[in-house]
Structures are given as structure tokens and as C-alpha cells.
């Protein structure tokens, strides 16, 4: 069992047909449509947020945080299990200064590019093809982190 702050009680070896993943594609498309309609992929909305000119993005982010908090509380309170019947365990995280550095780098990148990883594909889907550079940069940055992870302070 590989331990990257994840807990897995059993290994799933079910081989599904290719069309089994279509539901994820459909949910992703729906997610992208919601992002576009809510204007949270808009570079201008993101710049308004970082310039403290609008509450729109703070409201979206705040409601997402609140939804996450309620969801985790419900999972813990009712001991909700996965679809396979496994218990969901949430491992406490230890704070370290690398989280501050990572958060600052993430925030600077978000402010400069006007895109965080969530809406990248929705932005590309709306025709903002320059965002492909941001996507490739995010993939490259993730690769670099994975390569240097053992050498970084954690």
C-alpha cells in the first residue's frame, strides 16, 4: 500500500468497459458549463477578486468552502461509507511552512494567469486557447514538484 496521506483498505481490480467512464465526462462537461455560466472562469472576474473590487468570486469560493465543511461534518457524523462499503477516514494533516510557500506560488500564478486548475479546461473549451500554455505550465510545475518532492521541506 502506497502512503501519500491516503488510506486504501482494499485494491480494486475491476476492469470496466471504455463507456463506463462516460459518466465522468458528462459530469465534467456539466461542471464546465456551470463554471462558464457562473462567470468563475472569467479572467476579468478573477482580476476583480485580486483587486478587491468585487465580492462575486469570494462568494463562490466561500460557498464551496462551506459546502466542503458541511460535507466532511456529515461524513464524520453519520460514518458514511464509499460505494464499495469501505469506511471513509480523514487523516489529520500536519501544518508546515511549505504550505505557505506553495499557497503563495499558487496565488501568484492564479493572479498572473487568471486561471486556477479547476477552470482551465472550461476556459480552453470556450475558445481561450492561450490557456493551453497555462495548462502545460501547471502540468510541468506538478512534474517538477513530484521530481523534487523528497528534497523539499515537508
Structure report:
The protein contains 6 helices and no strands. It has 154 residues and is mainly α. The longest helix is centred in the middle third of the chain and has 22 residues, at 56-77. It starts with 21 loop residues before the first helix and ends in a 6-residue tail after the last helix. The mean pLDDT is 85. Keywords: Membrane, Transmembrane, Transmembrane helix. The chain crosses the membrane at residues 24-44, 56-75, 100-122, 128-148. Pfam families: Sulf_transp.
Strand content: under 5%
Specify the overall morphology. Answer: globular
Radius of gyration: 18 Å
- State the end-to-end CA separation: 21 Å
User: Which class of secondary structure composition applies to the elements?
Assistant: mainly alpha
Poorly predicted runs:
none
Count of helical regions: 6
Query: Secondary-structure element sequence?
Result: HHHHHH
Kindly report the average pLDDT value. Answer: 85
Indicate the percent of residues in helices: 55-70%
The count of DSSP E runs of length 2 or more, i.e. the number of strands, is 0
Biggest beta-sheet profile: none
